[in-house]
Every structure is written in structure tokens, then in C-alpha cells.
Amino acid sequence: MSQSIHYSVLLKESVEALAIRPDGIYIDCTFGRGGHSREILSKLGDSGRLMAIDQDPQAVEYANQQINDARFEIQQGSFENLKDYCQSRDWIGKVDGVLLDLGVSSPQLDQAERGFSFMREGPLDMRMDTSQGLTAREWLAEVEESELKRVLKTYGEERFSGRIARHIKEAIGDGKLHTTKELADLVTQVSPKTEKNKHPATRTFQAIRIAVNRELDVLENVLTSAVEVLAPKGRLSVISFHSLEDRIVKTFIRDKSRVQDLYPESPIPMGVIEPIIKRIGKPVFPSKQECAENGRSRSSVLRIAEKL
Fold first, then answer.
1. d(Cα 79, Cα 28) in Å, to the nearest integer?
2. pTM of the predicted model, to two decimals?
3. Which CATH number is 110-213's, of 3.90.220.20, 3.40.720.10, 1.10.150.170, 1.10.10.10?
4. What are phi and psi of 304, to 5 degrees?
5. Is 295 exposed, middle or buried (0-12, 13-18, 19+ CB in 10 A)?
6. Looking at the chain, which residues constitute the CATH 3.40.50.150 domain(s)?
7. Distance CA 30, CA 101 (A)
8. Of the options 3.40.50.720, 3.40.50.300, 3.40.50.150, 3.30.160.60, the CATH number for the domain spanning 11-101+215-307
9. pLDDT of the residue at 4
10. Are 119 and 108 in contact (CB under 8 A)?
11. N or C: which end of the chain has fewer CB within 10 A?
12. Pairing relation of β-strands 301-307 and 260-261?
């Protein structure tokens, strides 16, 4: 297995945000290569517990090889199933902290065979869990051009979504586009304009990856589950890497932190939903030093909430 160096973004800040109790129960929903998990374990006492989750079989294998600690367990699967994992352990309402480090890990980007990077030649895969689901190439072959245009525009915020979608579908129909380089080259060729310091295929790759892995739907689901499994005063710590993710997290924390009118159209108050969490502090951004040491941290933002 490739042992790519993985820098855990906002490591200290995100773990400190959990306000760890030595005897608490914590969940690292995105193990990756274990940076956040190791930091949490360093703060737990003998009776503390940490469950990490990752759908990437390589990450799970790495965890089993590298972390030998009775307080730790790794659960393979999607963090969308967080509530089920907690239910089976009788942890509903008992978890003291949940951490989410969203996006793609450095090892996934650095391994050409995973197909996430337009900078490395590899198959068009992009699946977080390589054991199931459609590859990016298979998804592109199945998706309608109109839906692909929507995905590129919505998930990638791509200005030339229609043009790129049309050329991708034409190439797929001609039996082309089997590798990341072929897709990146196509997008580069058909893009009328380019952004300074940004590869023309950046937005397209992001959009396709999000669609293949249902990342935004899964994020909305796990935020709801996280609040359900947390104990009173339990903390939620979420690191996002692009505006679409951060918007979902920001909106969720805002909406769940205030009274919600069940019947906003009614002139007479008929019922409300009381706040279930409170926002902790302001968004946290990486320091200049961290950005200099790890360029991938530049777009990251940490948001924190506490269950009431």
C-alpha cells in the first residue's frame, strides 16, 4: 500500500474544539490516515473510547496495521450510517464529540489508480469506496447530458458546464475517456477561458467526484445523525474544503441553533421547534504557516457546534 504523507488539516484546532473529556466517547467520521484519531487518543484516558469510520478499504487496512490501542476501533463504511453504527453500540445520545474532515485525503489524491487527480494519469474511478458503486467513467456513460450540465454547474460552479458536458458525452459515445488525463485534456481543450493558478479541469473533477460519491446528500444526512447521537454538551467539529460543503454546514448549524416556526405562513403562532444546538465561536481558518506547509489547507474552514 502507498504510504503517502498525509497532513491533517486544522489538526489542533478541530480536536480542541471537541473539548475532550478523558473518559468520553468520540467519533472520527473520516479516518483518512489517522491524524485526527491519534490526536484524540492522546487526550483520552484509559476508559475513553474512539470509533473511526472510513469507507476506503485502504484507510481501514492502514488503521488496523498502524493503531494498536484497546480504546480504538475502525468501522468500514460510509459515515452516512453513523446512527446505525452508534445504535449497534448503544451510543445514541451518549457520544461526547463527532469530528468530520470532509473531502478527499492526500493519499487518495496522490494515488493515480484512484482516479481523483487530474495531475496524475489513472483510470476514471473517483469512488471513495472502491468495492461498490459506479466508477466516474461508468457514471459519465450513464448520465444524461442535461444532468451532467447541472452537476458541473451546481457542484463545480463551472461557467462552461454546457459546453464541457456536451464534449464529454460526445467523447464517451465515441468510446473515449478512460483515464484522468484524457478527461483533463478534453476539458482544457474545450474551455474558452482559464483561471489564473487553477487547472481548467479542477471544477469538473470536483463536480464529478461529488456526484459519484453523493457527497452533499451524505453530508446533510450525517449532520442530522451527528446531533442525534451526541450527548448534551457534546461537540460537533466539521472541516469543509469548498463553498458547497461549507454552505451546508453553516446553514445546518444556523437553522438548528434558533427557534424554527413550524407554520411560517400562518398569521397565528401554531408551533415551533426549539434550538437543539448552539454555535461555538466563529469559523476557524488555517494559519499562514499551515497554508505554507500544506497548500491543500488553504480552502479549509472549521465550524463548531454544541448540543443543548
1. 9
2. 0.90
3. 1.10.150.170
4. -130, 140
5. exposed
6. 11-101+215-307
7. 6
8. 3.40.50.150
9. 43
10. no
11. N
12. unpaired
Write the DSSP assignment of 230-265 as a string of letters.
EEEEEEEEEEE-SHHHHHHHHHHHHHHTS-EES-TT
Phi, psi of 169, rounded to the nearest 5 degrees: -65, -35
Closest CA to 130 of 212, 63, 203: 212
Helix axis angle, 180-190 to 161-173, nearest 10°: 130
pLDDT in tens, 201-211: 999 999 999 99
Question: Among residues of the chain, what percentage have pLDDT more than 70?
Answer: 94
Hey, what amino acid is at 263? Y
Cβ–Cβ under 8 Å, residues 156 and 203 = yes
Per the document, the length of the chain is 308
The per-residue pLDDT of the chain, averaged, comes to 92
Place 1 in a pLDDT band, splitting at 50, 70 and 90.
Answer: very low
pLDDT at 268: 77
* Residue 301 vs residues 9, 66, 213, 218, 263: alpha-carbon distances, Å: 9, 28, 21, 19, 33
